[in-house]
Amino acid sequence: VNDGGGQLFAVGGVEQYGRENVKSAMEEIMETPGNEDDDRQWGNVCLALRAAGAHRTRMSAEDMWEYPLVHAAVEFGGRRRFIFERVWRETDRQERDSMDAAGRTPLAVAIGSASREDYSYLPCVDEDDDEEEEDILKLGTVIRRLLDNQTSWPQSGRIPIPGKDGRSSPRLPLHEALHRGIGIVDGIEHILNAYPAALSIPEPTTRLIPCLLAAVVEGASVDTIFGLMTRRPDLIVDLCKHCLEGHRSDDNFSKKQKCHV
Hints:
disordered C terminus; elongated; mainly alpha; disordered N terminus
């Protein structure tokens, strides 16, 4: 893909070339604020973002201009406040409420980016540091914005995220977020606020409700498990009742077997 000024990506090079082109164009804008070339450089940022998103979802070069800019900024914007805020200002509610060519909402893209190491929204790791870096957004901030009732699409909290390459079952955003290791303060709380009913819905593969799923995923967090349990303690009470009833049934069966003998 190219804009007449040079190739943006080598074939198959979306990870490396997408990130570098976005970063290069963005740094040039930030070094010369108000420069007459600002619009041109911002256009290059948007071009690189859309091209990266189109490449990721296997869109053609001709169709890449249709790729939603919000999705691209979330996935390839490097957590830069500068990029996210400007894209947010320059897009309307309709684009924020759209799906990309892979059937993903902006929330799905944010959750899917959480496990990336290079340019992703990594979960918070320092609980004592409540301040965000000047130009770096935390995942929880992004998810909150994407689910805001006034400016975005809170209903996306209940829209299933497509399985990878169509090979696995779709998951609710809450299920996918837990699988990705996202914690209660990193966005889970905002997802729950958008769709509280998800707490009682089993994940399709494990058949576990979220509070149990949180306990078995890699990197399980006590805070997340406790946070989910306290939102719906009745679910745990019901599980305990079933376990006790099952245990009593087993004891009665054993007693009958002994009497029969």
